Amino acid sequence: MAFAAQTPDISGERQFGQDVRTQNVVACQAVANIVKSSLGPVGLDKMLVDDIGDVTITNDGATILKLLEVEHPAAKVLVELAELQDREVGDGTTSVVIVAAELLKRANDLVRTKIHPTSIISGYRLAMREACKYVNDKLALKVEKLGKDSLVNCAKTSISSKLIGANSDFFANLVVEAVQAVKTTNARGDTRYPIKGINILKAHGKSVKDSYLLKGYALNTGRAAQGMPLRVAPAKIACLDFNLQKTKMQMGIQVLVTDPRELEKIRQREADMTKERIEKLLSAGANVILTTKGIDDMALKYFVEAGAIAVRRVRKEDLRHVAKATGATAVSTFADMEGEETFDSSFLGYADEVAEERIADDDVILIKGTKTSSAV
């Protein structure tokens, strides 16, 4: 029996080799040319109009590229490059795109002169390592030596292309103070600036100049109940990562009830378990309770009676920062090794004061005077 070999019918065109390389480079050059004219002191703003007629005027590279509808896969990589630069550094988005496009253009010329792409790639890698080494040895300055004025000027340069450019004097100082507040030094003596430790809350309704830096941490939520005090000082903070709601049986547990009068007892026990948990918290000395999950209305009254502030649905990230800043331990269960439920006062964090304030239209919980200044 004989089989005829059939070539599968693949619809579409297949391109390969130099043609594709040239196309990719041309596409990247096109993207670079768009943002090129917005770079530098004589750079001009771009006016972008989208499908529904919204107008954006900006000279921020990442914003321009985000609003361009780029179809070409190679050009898309450049757009992602700019977005990554914006996320990681916050400045230099246009320069990154222009440098990348120029490198591609030069590499394409080399490929045409019969140099293999792999050789070019390894050459670029070597050049990158050498460049980084040179920058570290010859050009890099320690931030401590620069003094505040230079840092403020750096911040101003970065802000100039952004929306708050008009108030760059005010914001540059704010930014420098915030970053210097979260400075940490590790055992080896390296200085680190964990930018994630700076939380930014935006509130509508007041002037931009009313922005200020809070030594401590702010949560974008209010108290869980109106009966709670507006401020607690000094604050002992418990950070929880579980529900303070009626305890439900876990999946797969069955309760067989022979006497219907026992049902009420089961319900009561479910409510009591939560009550006992809250009493353990309060007896350990906690007067501020933050949880990432919910708190029952039934459970809230115990906090109100004890004069404690409870906040529910706190973002996990916020909880971690608060725990770090106040020296608290984020607790995900009360169970200890023996299977008993306990809460030790060593899990609590400390702050001078926790207060709820109304900023513009939002209620905000402010945690002031934290033990370490790892969050501002």
UniProtKB/TrEMBL annotation:
GO cellular component, one term: cytoplasm
Subcellular locations according to the entry: Cytoplasm
PROSITE patterns cross-referenced by the UniProt entry: TCP1_1, TCP1_2, TCP1_3
GO molecular function: ATP binding; ATP hydrolysis activity; ATP-dependent protein folding chaperone; unfolded protein binding
InterPro entries the record matches: Chaperone_TCP-1, Chaperonin_TCP-1_CS, Cpn60/GroEL/TCP-1, GroEL-like_apical_dom_sf, GROEL-like_equatorial_sf, TCP-1-like_intermed_sf
Keywords: ATP-binding, Chaperone, Cytoplasm, Nucleotide-binding
Keyword Nucleus: no
Family: Belongs to the TCP-1 chaperonin family.
Protein name as catalogued: T-complex protein 1 subunit alpha
Taxon lineage: Eukaryota, Viridiplantae, Streptophyta, Embryophyta, Tracheophyta
